[in-house]
């Protein structure tokens, strides 16, 4: 039976739980982070890494709907440094280096796009489930993020709450990172988002969307579909929960350091498809 993970299995940030922001992650941090692999239909040996995603159980990854294309073929789990075949990190003088297990590339057998997703550029309902061809075995480097299950969590918009984003996005040098990064962001109200950050744009922030701002890292085009992470205490356990999916972003014109992320909140549709997994 395909079930959502227990609190003992999901939402473990990793071996280095203190998130300082704007820095490289440790190899075991945010082990639910997925990379989506796109394969050239005319040349199977030619592939590229695109959007991000979040492992939510042994068979499903959540991502943005606009990331789904006919060439989307694989989900990569356990990745850290995209430039190396084997991830090796230096730790300290007592443990000079540690090598991670090989990455896992798993075929996608079905893309489930939100039925009301509109490809015209509107961010509403920009969410999709990717069903994997085979079961995922959890390891310290590959494990799921928790989904907000109870009504209080589902209705919480987390206004003025610190959250976290991860990915291989741009640093301040505008160069994409080879190593997975982490950064702290702040979730703001939709009213503040529209009045202070989107007054010159044509983007309307509906109740289905959320806004988050930060100045430590900009998750770039390749990180659409990644997770907005909040820490919650449920039944006495502190775990990481998926608050939303990164849909788009822009840089505030005045400062060029403040990055705005537009987040698709988790709709009831996602729970409808996963209700039999609980």
UniProtKB/TrEMBL annotation:
Gene Ontology MF, one: serine-type endopeptidase activity
Entry keyword annotation includes Calcium: yes
UniProt xrefs under CDD domains: Tryp_SPc
Occurrences of domain Peptidase S1 (ranges): 19-275
PROSITE patterns referenced in this protein's UniProt entry, alphabetically: TRYPSIN_DOM, TRYPSIN_HIS, TRYPSIN_SER
Assigned keywords, A-Z: Calcium, Disulfide bond, Glycoprotein, Hydrolase, Protease, Serine protease, Signal, Zymogen
Family as reported in the entry's similarity comment: Belongs to the peptidase S1 family. CLIP subfamily.
Higher taxonomy: Eukaryota, Metazoa, Ecdysozoa, Arthropoda, Hexapoda
A biological process from GO: proteolysis
Protein name (database record): (Mediterranean fruit fly) hypothetical protein
């Amino acid at each position: 039976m395909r079930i959502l993970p227990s609190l003992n299995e999901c939402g473990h940030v990793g071996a280095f739980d203190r998130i300082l922001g704007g820095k490289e992650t440790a190899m075991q941090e945010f082990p639910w982070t997925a990379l989506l692999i796109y394969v050239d239909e005319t040349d199977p040996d030619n592939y590229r890494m695109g959007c991000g995603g979040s492992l939510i159980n042994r068979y499903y990854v959540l991502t943005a709907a606009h990331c789904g294309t006919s060439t989307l073929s694989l989900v990569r789990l356990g990745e850290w440094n995209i430039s190396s075949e084997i991830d090796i990190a230096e730790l300290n003088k007592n443990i000079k280096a540690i090598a991670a297990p090989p990455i896992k590339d798993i075929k996608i057998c079905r893309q489930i796009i939100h039925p009301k997703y509109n490809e015209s550029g509107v961010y509403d309902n920009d969410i999709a489930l990717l069903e994997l061809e085979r079961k995922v075995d959890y390891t310290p480097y590959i494990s799921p993020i928790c989904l907000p299950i109870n009504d209080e969590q589902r209705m919480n918009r987390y206004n003025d709450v610190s959250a976290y984003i991860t990915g291989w996005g741009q640093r301040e040098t505008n160069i994409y990172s080879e190593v997975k990064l982490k950064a702290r962001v702040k979730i703001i109200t939709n009213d503040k988002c529209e009045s202070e950050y989107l007054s010159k744009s044509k983007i309307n922030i509906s109740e289905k969307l959320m806004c988050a701002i930060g100045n430590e890292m900009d998750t770039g085009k390749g990180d659409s579909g990644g997770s907005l992470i909040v820490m919650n205490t449920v039944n006495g356990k502190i775990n990481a929960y998926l608050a939303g999916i990164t849909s788009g972003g822009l840089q505030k014109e005045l400062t060029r350091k403040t990055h705005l992320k537009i987040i698709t909140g988790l709709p009831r549709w996602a729970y409808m498809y996963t209700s039999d997994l609980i």
